[in-house]
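Support request from a user on the community tier.

User writes: "When I paste my structure tokens into the form, the page sometimes reloads and wipes my input. The last time it worked, I copied everything first. Here is what I submitted, just in case something in the input itself triggers the reload:"
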């Protein structure tokens, strides 16, 4: 069942608040038990009296006008909302952004990136649009009760492509059944041809890693990403519940990582992977939405949580 956009914004803000409160609870405190109890009681009273300032800050930003090339979310290390602006945010755009964040004070940190923030569509495994020149990456194969087998990919890919082929100008093997972007960034495509489609991710080194389930990502997760353009790359989940504004519109509740990606990798899978203890199976976490940078210099990438897409389509990882 599809979640409403307002519910998703509220859930993202609430999760951000919980993450900050959890981090605060680990802060050092006095060894004097009475002092600790008094401080705890004061903190609880403060939480009851009013909303968390970071939650309020996120709400203000999420209600703001669209400024393409921007992203924001709570950084669990800094305990601030970090607002990132790419090089296209200049002149009037930069003035609007500065006017927006200045009243938010110390709760916000404004950063610039040297590379453009964009969806990674360009023209897992490559899937090609038969009705245009787009290329994306297959995310995860799924099953639904009483329906044909299908796969998940990015919503901005599904918006552009209705008929999919496995090679450029090849025969159709799937059709987009539903696509949700902006707001969310996921799509469902139904298989229309009898092609093998197991539950695994391609590591692009001759190995396939079986996918045994799905969950939401956690900050600190060691992860892998697979895509048609750049193959497989590894990194770490750095933040949750991020808001990104692309030229095409705003997306909420994304997972941020330090894994690189490039055009053509859009829609590809994010999955658990610890290089220090190479797994024999993996868990599905997300679908590549967009980011900045590349795999030569490094970058930042954002992912649609896969659990939300599975829930929306009443689908499961087979």
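"...and here is what came back when it finally went through:"
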């Amino acid at each position: 069942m599809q979640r409403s956009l307002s519910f998703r914004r509220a859930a993202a803000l609430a999760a951000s608040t919980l993450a900050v409160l959890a981090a605060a609870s680990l802060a050092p405190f006095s060894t004097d038990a009475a002092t600790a109890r008094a401080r705890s009681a004061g903190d609880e009273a403060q939480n009851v009296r009013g909303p968390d300032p970071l939650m309020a800050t996120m709400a203000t930003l999420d209600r703001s006008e669209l400024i393409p090339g921007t992203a924001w979310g709570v950084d669990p290390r800094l305990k601030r909302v970090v607002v990132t602006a790419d090089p296209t945010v200049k002149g009037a755009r930069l003035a609007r952004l500065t006017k927006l964040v200045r009243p938010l004070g110390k709760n916000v940190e404004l950063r610039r990136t040297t590379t453009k923030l964009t969806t990674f569509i360009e023209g897992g495994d490559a899937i090609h649009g038969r009705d245009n020149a787009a290329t994306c990456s297959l995310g995860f194969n799924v099953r639904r009760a009483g329906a044909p087998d299908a796969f998940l990919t990015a919503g901005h890919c599904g918006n552009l492509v209705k008929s999919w082929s496995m090679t450029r100008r090849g025969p159709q093997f799937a059709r987009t059944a539903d696509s949700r972007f902006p707001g969310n960034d996921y799509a469902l495509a139904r298989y229309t041809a009898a092609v093998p489609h197991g539950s695994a991710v391609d590591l692009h080194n001759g190995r396939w890693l079986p996918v045994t389930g799905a969950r939401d990502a956690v900050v600190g997760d060691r992860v892998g990403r697979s895509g048609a353009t750049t193959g497989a790359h590894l990194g770490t989940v750095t933040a949750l519940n991020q808001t990104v504004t692309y030229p095409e519109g705003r997306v909420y509740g994304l997972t941020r990582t330090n894994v690189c990606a490039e055009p053509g990798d859009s829609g590809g899978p994010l999955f658990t992977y610890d290089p220090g203890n190479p797994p024999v199976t993996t868990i599905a976490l997300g679908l590549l939405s967009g980011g900045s940078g590349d795999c030569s210099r490094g970058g930042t990438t954002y992912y649609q949580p896969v659990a939300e897409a599975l829930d929306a389509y009443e689908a499961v990882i087979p």
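Agent notes: The reload is a front-end session timeout and is unrelated to the input. Residues 13 and 58 are 7 Å apart (CA to CA). The chain has six helices and 20 strands. Escalated to web team.
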